[in-house]
């Protein structure tokens, strides 16, 4: 039998109290408390009583902006991974809108090297390469080179490809290397210059709106292409009912479409913009209450496959401007699990949905390793305290980006320890010591 | 009770009693403006910064004159004359101004919410002189005061606001004020110049100017920004002038004593026929005169937090 490195007792797992054995970086056994034989006489086994804590697989965030290279003052790979570790994320898919853009192997390798230097044992950066050179939407990026360097998907993210012919070819070419295309769905003309959802609130506040049809039209285009080409497409940060209805219909017809949304679209609506609060400026924008309800339903029923943060850190001075001047984005890695848990507490989601939406489905869509808590799975897991509320002060957030509507607010549930490959990479528990290089 | 507000950001901050008080006080200041010596010492020693990041003739001059007639010291700052031109943030410009300890900053800015941005950060009074497409409360108050001088009451009155409502801060503030005072409001514009979800506004919506003007007591024409054509919102300016420009034929079924207003600057022959701008029904110059009296009132109230009758 493999050597037992950790014996974690009395942890809550799927409404049962369980004991967990970890050895050689993998799950050895997870079973009802008291039924697992404690390692006898083995030296070097750490035993931890996790009574009151809940077990989750280490989460995967398929949509983050780490800002390095190019905008390290907002975030760098080390600070981003620190926030990931503390937020319960073992893998983060880093978007390509760095400077220089991640459209070639040297940038991909640079990101992976920086990650290895700061967090040799994870969290892991999974780079997302650019779909087009420089994100300019003119020429295809070298998908083969990017795949070989370590990219796990391709996307133009915030700069969606306007040229439909080029987008079709990008989907076809990426497929040769097993890379999914992630599309930020926004008609570049309908949303041009918009800063919030187009509707009653934008009209009253005198802010230029982005209509929901701007997103839905591109969702429809992508679905039609995916269907025609019989290729997969993954739709980023879906924000409205119209898109949900299109995706639901496509899935029923067997189109290979998957989709994500973010906790902020499930929690807040456009009314949060009242008072011109730049912390809720985000693209796509917060929509109406009706859209929020449609998204919650879609997440419950699987029409939306996964949750992502769209972690978009910005410096404080960049957000302390007028609403129209502020950059889009919410810093999300530190608070995502708490916000998701808020949805669980309010009955919008089941606790079990967290693993599905933040880990297993994500891993399946992008071909990433994940812990299903079966013997032999990588021992990537989180010990979460659902009863511990915390205040998201600037000091408590590990990301450099403090741009969250949660700032200085109390939010529920906290990651107490985070293990990757059976090694604690983050801990707020005295009894669990970090193993950092 | 004392004047309870530190800042004037939008009309919805005020209640009908406060607006009535503003009108009563403005009437007294209007009388001051008719005297040979048009100066009173009410704000002697007070300083007012006129921070106009966006171009303005009448509003800036009106505030300047209002301040000086109350003996306040006024200081002008424009985008081209400020460090905004050099890329300084609005916050830093504001903090710099604050450090000079003015009693009020009158701000006009191209971004909606800019006045609120300052109000949340600075101790002095902030008077919104127009922010983006959002609000122009002092224009609404002077429009209301002008009509109040003519009508005495808004009960039973119908006002049509004609033109580019979607991009108009004047329209938003006028709708808030006029409906609060009891008038019925209509808006008329091509659909491309109507705000999103206009059905949620407390107005009747028209696309036919003649129908919109049937039975109305006043028409407020809005300025058409010429770049709307380049933005693809209009076919061409002649088409707009022929279809939506206010002309005498549109007013055939309006009330006999209909009043015509315009916040200026006017594009004559485009959004309003020149003869209407100059006719006896036009209150355009009355609006300008009212503007000084209303702004004197506002500076007086906000800078002294004066007692008002309960």
From TrEMBL, chain A:
Q: Mind telling me which InterPro entries this protein's record contains?
A: DHOase (IPR004722), DHOase/Allantoinase_Hydrolase (IPR050138), DHOase_cat (IPR024403), Dihydroorotase_CS (IPR002195), Metal-dep_hydrolase_composite (IPR011059), Metal_Hydrolase (IPR032466)
Q: What residues does substrate bind to?
A: 65-67, 97, 283, 314
Gene Ontology biological process terms, A to Z = 'de novo' UMP biosynthetic process; purine nucleobase catabolic process
As recorded in UniProt, its EC number(s) are 3.5.2.3
Gene Ontology terms for molecular function: allantoinase activity; dihydroorotase activity; zinc ion binding
Q: How is the cofactor bound?
A: Binds 2 Zn(2+) ions per subunit.
Entry superkingdom: Bacteria
Pfam families recorded for this chain?
A: DHOase (PF12890)
Q: Give the family this protein belongs to, as stated in its UniProt record.
A: Belongs to the metallo-dependent hydrolases superfamily. DHOase family. Class I DHOase subfamily.
What does this protein's UniProt record list under function? Answer: Catalyzes the reversible cyclization of carbamoyl aspartate to dihydroorotate.
| Name this polypeptide is given | Dihydroorotase
The species this protein was found in: Desulfomicrobium norvegicum (strain DSM 1741 / NCIMB 8310)
Taxonomy of origin reads: Bacteria, Pseudomonadati, Thermodesulfobacteriota, Desulfovibrionia, Desulfovibrionales
Q: Which gene encodes it?
A: pyrC
UniProtKB/TrEMBL annotation, chain B:
Say if the entry is tagged with keyword Transferase.
yes
Q: Name one GO biological process term.
A: 'de novo' pyrimidine nucleobase biosynthetic process
Q: Which SUPFAM superfamilies match?
A: Aspartate/ornithine carbamoyltransferase
Instruction: Give residue ranges for domain Aspartate/ornithine carbamoyltransferase carbamoyl-P binding.
Output: 6-148
Q: Which domain of life is it from?
A: Bacteria
Binding residue positions for L-aspartate: 86, 169, 223
Query: What's in the keyword line of the UniProt record?
Result: Pyrimidine biosynthesis, Transferase
EC number(s) per UniProt? 2.1.3.2
Query: Residues in domain Aspartate/ornithine carbamoyltransferase Asp/Orn-binding?
Result: 156-300
* Alphabetical list of InterPro entries matching this protein: Asp/Orn_carbamoyltranf_P-bd, Asp/Orn_carbamoylTrfase, Asp/Orn_carbamoylTrfase_sf, Asp_carbamoyltransf, Asp_carbamoyltransf_Asp/Orn-bd
Q: What does this protein do?
A: Catalyzes the condensation of carbamoyl phosphate and aspartate to form carbamoyl aspartate and inorganic phosphate, the committed step in the de novo pyrimidine nucleotide biosynthesis pathway.
- Quaternary state and partners of this protein? Heterododecamer (2C3:3R2) of six catalytic PyrB chains organized as two trimers (C3), and six regulatory PyrI chains organized as three dimers (R2).
Q: Family assignment?
A: Belongs to the aspartate/ornithine carbamoyltransferase superfamily. ATCase family.
Provide the protein name: Aspartate carbamoyltransferase
Source organism:
Desulfomicrobium norvegicum (strain DSM 1741 / NCIMB 8310)
Lineage summary: Bacteria, Pseudomonadati, Thermodesulfobacteriota, Desulfovibrionia, Desulfovibrionales
């Amino acid at each position: 039998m493999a050597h037992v490195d950790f014996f974690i007792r009395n942890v809550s797992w799927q409404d049962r109290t369980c004991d967990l054995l970890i050895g050689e970086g993998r799950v050895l056994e997870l079973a009802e408390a008291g039924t697992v034989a404690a390692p006898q006489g083995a030296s070097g086994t750490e035993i931890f009583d996790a009574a009151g804590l809940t077990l989750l697989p280490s989460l995967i965030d398929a949509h983050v902006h780490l800002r390095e290279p190019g905008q390290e003052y907002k975030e760098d790979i080390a600070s981003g991974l620190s926030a990931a570790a503390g937020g319960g994320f073992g893998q983060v898919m880093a978007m390509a809108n760095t400077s220089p853009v991640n459209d070639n192997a040297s940038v991909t390798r640079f990101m992976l090297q920086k990650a290895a230097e700061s967090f040799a044992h994870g969290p892991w950066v999974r780079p997302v390469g650019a779909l087009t050179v420089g994100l300019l939407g003119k020429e295809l990026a070298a998908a083969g080179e990017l795949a070989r360097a370590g990219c796990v998907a391709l996307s133009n993210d915030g700069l969606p490809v306007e040229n439909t012919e080029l987008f079709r070819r990008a989907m076809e070419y990426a497929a040769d290397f097993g890379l999914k295309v992630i599309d930020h769905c926004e008609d570049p003309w309908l949303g041009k210059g918009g800063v919030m959802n187009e509707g009653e609130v934008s009209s009253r506040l005198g802010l230029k709106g982005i209509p929901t049809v701007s997103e839905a039209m591109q969702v429809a285009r992508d679905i039609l292409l995916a269907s025609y080409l019989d290729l997969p497409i993954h739709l980023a940060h879906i924000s409205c009912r119209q898109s949900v209805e299109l995706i639901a219909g496509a899935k029923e017809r067997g189109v290979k479409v998957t989709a994500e949304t973010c906790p902020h679209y499930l929690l807040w609506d456009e009314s949060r913009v009242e008072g011109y609060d730049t912390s809720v400026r985000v693209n796509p924008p917060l929509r109406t209450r009706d859209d929020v309800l449609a998204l919650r339903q879609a997440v419950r029923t699987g029409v939306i496959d996964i949750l992502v943060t769209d972690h978009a850190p910005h410096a404080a001075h960049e957000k302390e401007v007028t609403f129209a001047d502020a950059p889009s984005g919410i810093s999300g890695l530190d608070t995502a699990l708490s916000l998701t848990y808020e949805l669980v507490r309010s009955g919008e989601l089941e606790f079990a949905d967290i693993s599905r939406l933040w880990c297993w489905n994500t891993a399946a869509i992008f071909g990433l390793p994940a812990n299903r808590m079966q013997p032999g799975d990588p021992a990537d897991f989180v010990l979460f305290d659902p009863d511990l509320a915390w205040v998201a002060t600037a000091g408590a957030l590990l990301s450099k980006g403090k741009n969250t509507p949660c700032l200085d607010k109390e939010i529920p549930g906290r990651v107490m320890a985070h293990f990757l490959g059976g090694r604690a990479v983050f801990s707020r528990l005295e009894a669990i010591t970090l193993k950092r290089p | 009770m004392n004047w309870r507000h530190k800042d004037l950001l939008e009309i919805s901050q005020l209640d009908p009693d406060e607006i009535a008080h503003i009108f009563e006080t403005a009437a007294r200041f209007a009388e001051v403006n008719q005297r040979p010596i048009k100066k009173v010492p009410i704000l002697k020693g007070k300083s007012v910064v006129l921070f106009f990041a966006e171009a303005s003739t009448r509003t800036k001059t009106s505030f300047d004159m209002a301040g000086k007639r109350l003996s306040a010291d006024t200081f002008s700052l424009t985008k081209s004359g400020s460090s905004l031109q050099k890329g300084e943030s609005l916050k830093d410009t504001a903090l710099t101004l604050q450090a000079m300890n003015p009693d009020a900053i009158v701000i006009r800015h191209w971004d909606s919410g800019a006045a609120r941005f300052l109000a949340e950060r600075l101790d002095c009074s902030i008077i919104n002189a127009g922010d983006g497409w959002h609000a122009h409360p002092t224009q609404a108050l002077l429009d209301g005061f002008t009509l109040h001088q003519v009508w005495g009451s808004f009960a039973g009155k119908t006002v049509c606001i004609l033109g580019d409502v979607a991009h108009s801060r004047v329209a938003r503030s006028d709708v808030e004020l006029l409906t609060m005072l009891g008038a019925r409001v209509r808006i008329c514009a091509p659909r491309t110049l109507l705000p999103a979800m206009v059905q949620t506004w407390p107005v009747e919506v028209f696309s036919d100017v003649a129908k919109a003007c049937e039975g109305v007591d006043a028409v407020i024409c809005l300025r058409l920004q010429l770049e709307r054509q380049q933005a693809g919102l209009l076919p061409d300016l002649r088409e707009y002038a022929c279809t939506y420009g206010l002309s005498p034929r549109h007013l055939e079924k309006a009330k006999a004593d209909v009043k015509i207003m315009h916040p200026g600057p006017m594009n004559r022959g485009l959004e309003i026929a020149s003869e209407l701008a100059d006719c006896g029904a036009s209150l355009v110059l009355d609006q300008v005169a009212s503007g000084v009296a209303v702004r004197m009132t506002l500076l007086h109230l906000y800078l002294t937090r004066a007692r008002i009758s309960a």
